[in-house]
Amino acid sequence: MNFFKIIFKNDSFIRGATFIISGNIVGQAIVVISSPILTRIFLPHDFGIFGIYLAIVSFFTLISSFRYELAIILPKNEIIGLALTIISLILVFIVITILIMSIFILGDIFLYYTDSQSIKPYIWLIPFSVFFGGTYKAISYWLLRKKSFNKLFKARLIQDSSMVSAQLILGASNIGVIGLLLGHMIGICAGMVALFQDSFMSIIK
Asked: Once rounded to an integer, what is the mean pLDDT over residues 90-111?
């Protein structure tokens, strides 16, 4: 009971949770609304390749900072929180470097044993998407620590709207499945840039 009293007495917690949930709902709504149009532009085979690509990117994004980003919100000391954010970003860079070398050396073997040969022409996009996704994740926890919930909401809208817009434009250009992949990467990049700008402002204040 005491736990729930603390939560509901803390208006900032409720507002923050509302912002984050609302951002996720609106972002997903944008994706769902665009789905009927995207399914007319791209082939079912394209979405199959996109699904495999997303699974690989999501896995490497999850481990890109070794989950250090979860610790960013814990310390009471602001400098330690910032240090953990920087460590998370450095780890993302290290993982991306290893990933790029692994793709060049072991890419074919990885695709063979994971039965993912269909994405071979687009495997070079994976490090970029993982980098943007890992960076987005680390910075979002810093802003969560700073209770910048409105900025997280804005970044989520920018990410999803940019992704859908890019996929629609590229799809209309008849470039095939790479339109889905590039659109996804552009969306994550746009969200990351929005978060980076806001996090930079929160640091220098």
From this structure: 94
Q: Is-contact 140 67, C-beta < 8 A?
A: no
- What's the token pair of residue 54? 């997303």
Q: Does 200 have pLDDT greater than 50?
A: yes
> pTM above 0.85?
yes
Q: How far apart are CA 130 and CA 154, in angstroms?
A: 21
Kindly compute the dihedral angle of the four CA atoms of residues 12, 17, 23, 24, in this order, to the nearest 10 degrees.
170
Task: Give CA–CA dist 141/85, Å, rounded.
Answer: 8
As a three-state string, the secondary structure of 128-142 is HHHHHHHHHHHHHHH
C-alpha to C-alpha distance for 139 and 89, rounded to whole angstroms: 8
